[in-house]
Amino acid sequence: MKIYWTKINKIIEEAPEIKTYLLDCPEDFTWEEGSHTHFALKGFNAGDKPNRSLVRHMSISTLPHENSIGITTRIREQCSEFKTILKNLEVGDEVAIFKTHSNVPLKRGDKNVYLLSAGVGLATFRPLVLDYFERADNVNQVHSLNIDSSKNFLFTNIFESAPDKKFTAQFVDNRKDYYNEVKNLAADKEGLFYIVGSDEFLMQNIEVLREQCIKPEQIMLDKREDQLPEFLSFDLSV
């Protein structure tokens, strides 16, 4: 396993409690849309065993041509040891990234694509949308639906409806409106549904989609292949 140590080159305050850390790209570091990485702070590998409290699994919110590795995360006032240290880091400080992989690249199967997310989960979808804007081959259209009760919606300069690009962005601030809209989107029985959020959020969305006769193979999750049955294999009759 190769560990890349790199420096923070910019910190962007996206919204209250949400920051994007832009990191320098190591020379041979590559990734694709929908990628996640292990993001670690100094000292995580100082002892005999890695200090897991200094490591987090994070989505990369940028594409390679943007020349920075973007990590977008929520940091609340009361937060974990990891987030407390991260909150105090500055431009020029070093962090580590390793074990990078994409579970949710943009599928190009001549289908409609629906991106379902909660809050900062939208960061995972930012590169997919940019990739679609650059190359719309074999994607009919893309619809993003995001719920954020804070109403501090992210990346509104990108997640903005563009009929000429066959892209729709929708933001809601309550669960009732959100799940009603998921049901409406599920009227497309051939669509591909990507979901990003907490495990509870994933399960609630999957339940709604399955009730609308969306098949497990149409549902894309940011999970390892061996984790998928845990979410997608359940009997609707139970």
Automatic annotation (TrEMBL):
Transmembrane segments: none annotated. It comes from the Bacteria. Residues 1-107 form the FAD-binding FR-type domain. InterPro entries: FAD-bd_FR_type, FNR_nucleotide-bd, Riboflavin_synthase-like_b-brl. This is Dihydropteridine reductase.
